[in-house]
């Protein structure tokens, strides 16, 4: 159906895709706090030329074949030294670890929570689904806010610090919950604050890393958000084996406090320019209207519906997260009876398999996506087509991850293969997912950053993810009990294959979709300038 809309055009490029041939010693201005060509004394070691810039985490962000090419906005990636970029990514990765780990740390403690509050395990799992749904809703607010005021605006209500403090308070309140309604309320409040780490963190990495090195940096960032859900149940299992479940949330409270301290002391503003400056030339009635248009959650919510490529990559990310949470949520209910396990810590050990897979995939998934981009730049004689990045994830989303799900589901369903088979399957699907997420997320940043909507597109992607995470968490137990673990995982695998086919169609037709969007944005920019001149 998508193919009917546009003809195949792999070589089509748009304004945001073009590289220009340049000498490797071309001087570029360094944009500092006082404007272009300032001394930027805060970062004396900042590189001044393309040959000096090393935006890759391990100081080889672009190969020799592509060093002679530069992005049109290359100067924005020269503002921070390599070591400063590493520090920023490290802080953001730690912050990204906290929100997802809070969503799964209680999975091995569900029976204990149910006993404390006099309810059922299904009700506790429903609270976890509500937590994930709240994460999806809050993404719609944090993204547009950071696009207007910055990732870390210089005022008392800094987005990262404010959300971090509220996340810290809500986590502590969860540990003190006297009853089930209070527990539900504090879990929702925690989720509403924590997503700023994910949305604004991804956007900040897009601010400082050029596209040829961006996926590698995002892979490290995503390692925090991906290993968190897998390691959370393991840590929770250790805690509830020896202590009360409330200790889980006190531990998370301490970690969040440390994260807020790191943000306050070491995290700089990363966005090169905010849309707040565009409002300065208008009178207050119109300025307020324009401000609402920019911070409205509808911007991020409706964005995928006007951009087919963004919708498809969001759906693919949602399919991956559906499978992640559908795999992690029922482990204690499926594997404990299957292998006759008796304690929470034994079930928690199974979560290490996907967690180690996510961590192992971090080292190669992002690099593979960036390598694919560089390979096609060379193949196209210096032109970067954003959709080329998506080629790197196709085998993993269409074949490897679904295959691992089928092996996992049917060996458990038929009770064959022993413990080793599901453990290996969980590990391999973790590795495969880390070949997919950096590619999908980098692509979204690549195509929307030139339009100043990087935070919004990240927010819309996370909406897809956590809507499907909430559905997976809420559906998996009753669906598994009704259909069996084999058939449920078969349906999940088919969902992945379907989303992978759509990603393949995006590789083919995406350039034409983006060209149409670029024309629309160009017309809108001209109209805004004319309106400003008339005002």
From TrEMBL:
The keyword Transmembrane helix applies. Signal peptide: none annotated. Keywords: Membrane, Transmembrane, Transmembrane helix. The chain crosses the membrane at residues 86-109, 129-145, 157-176, 182-205, 217-242, 248-267, 300-325, 345-369, 390-410, 416-437, 457-479, 491-510. One of its GO terms (cellular component) is plasma membrane. Residues 88-517 form the Major facilitator superfamily (MFS) profile domain. Residues 12-28 have a biased composition (Polar residues). It comes from the Eukaryota. InterPro entries: MFS (IPR011701), MFS_dom (IPR020846), MFS_trans_sf (IPR036259). GO terms for molecular function: transmembrane transporter activity. Residues 1-45 are annotated as: Disordered. Pfam families: MFS_1 (PF07690). It is found in: Membrane. Gene3D superfamilies: MFS general substrate transporter like domains (1.20.1250.20). SUPFAM superfamilies: MFS general substrate transporter (SSF103473). PROSITE patterns: MFS. PANTHER family: MAJOR FACILITATOR SUPERFAMILY (PTHR23502), TRANSPORTER, PUTATIVE (AFU_ORTHOLOGUE AFUA_3G11760)-RELATED (PTHR23502:SF64). This is Dityrosine transporter 1. It comes from Aspergillus udagawae.
């Amino acid at each position: 159906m998508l193919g009917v809309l546009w003809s195949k055009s792999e070589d089509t490029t748009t304004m945001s895709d073009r590289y220009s041939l340049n000498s490797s010693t071309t001087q570029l201005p360094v944009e500092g706090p006082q404007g272009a060509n300032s001394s930027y004394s805060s970062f004396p070691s900042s590189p001044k030329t393309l040959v000096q810039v090393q935006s890759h985490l391990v100081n080889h962000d672009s190969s020799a074949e592509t060093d002679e090419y530069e992005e049109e906005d290359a100067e924005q990636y020269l503002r921070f030294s390599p070591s400063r970029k590493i520090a920023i990514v490290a802080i953001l990765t730690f912050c990204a670890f906290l929100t997802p780990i809070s969503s799964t740390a209680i999975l091995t403690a569900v029976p204990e929570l149910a006993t404390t509050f006099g309810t059922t395990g299904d009700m506790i799992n429903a609270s976890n689904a509500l937590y994930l749904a709240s994460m999806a809703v809050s993404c719609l607010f944090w993204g547009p806010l950071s696009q207007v005021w910055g990732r870390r605006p210089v005022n008392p209500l800094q987005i990262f610090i404010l959300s971090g403090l509220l996340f810290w308070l809500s986590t502590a309140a969860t540990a003190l919950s006297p009853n089930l309604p209070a527990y539900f309320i504090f879990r929702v409040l925690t989720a509403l604050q924590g997503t700023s780490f994910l949305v604004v963190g991804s956007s900040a990495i897009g601010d400082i890393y050029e596209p040829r090195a961006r996926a590698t940096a995002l892979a490290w960032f995503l390692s925090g958000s991906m290993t968190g859900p897998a390691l959370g149940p393991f840590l929770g299992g250790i805690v509830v084996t020896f202590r009360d479940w409330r200790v889980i949330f006190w531990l998370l409270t301490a970690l969040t406090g440390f994260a807020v301290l790191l943000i306050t002391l070491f995290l700089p503003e990363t966005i090169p320019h905010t849309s707040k400056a565009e409002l300065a030339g208008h009178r207050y009635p119109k300025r307020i209207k324009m401000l609402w248009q920019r911070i409205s959650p509808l911007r991020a919510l409706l964005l995928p519906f006007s951009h087919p490529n963004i919708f498809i990559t969001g759906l693919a990310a949602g399919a991956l997260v559906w499978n992640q949470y559908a795999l992690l949520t029922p482990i204690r209910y499926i594997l404990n009876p299957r292998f006759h396990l008796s304690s929470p810590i034994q079930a928690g050990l199974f979560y290490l398999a996907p967690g180690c897979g996510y961590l192992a995939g971090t080292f190669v998934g992002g690099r593979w996506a960036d390598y694919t981009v560089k390979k096609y730049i060379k193949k196209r004689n210096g032109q970067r087509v954003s959709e080329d990045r998506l080629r790197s994830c196709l085998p993993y989303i269409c074949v490897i991850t679904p295959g691992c799900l089928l092996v996992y589901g049917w060996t458990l369903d038929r009770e064959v293969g022993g413990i080793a088979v599901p453990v290996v399957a969980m590990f391999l699907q973790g590795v495969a997912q880390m070949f997919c997420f950096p590619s999908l997320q980098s692509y979204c940043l690549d195509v929307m950053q030139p339009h100043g909507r990087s935070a919004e597109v990240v927010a819309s992607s996370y909406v897809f993810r956590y809507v499907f995470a909430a559905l997976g968490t809420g559906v998996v137990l009753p669906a598994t009990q009704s259909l069996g673990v084999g058939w449920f995982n078969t349906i999940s695998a088919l969902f992945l294959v379907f989303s992978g086919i759509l990603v393949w169609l995006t590789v083919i037709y995406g350039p034409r979709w983006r060209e149409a969007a670029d024309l629309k944005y160009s017309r809108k920019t001209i109209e805004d300038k004319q309106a400003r001149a008339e005002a």
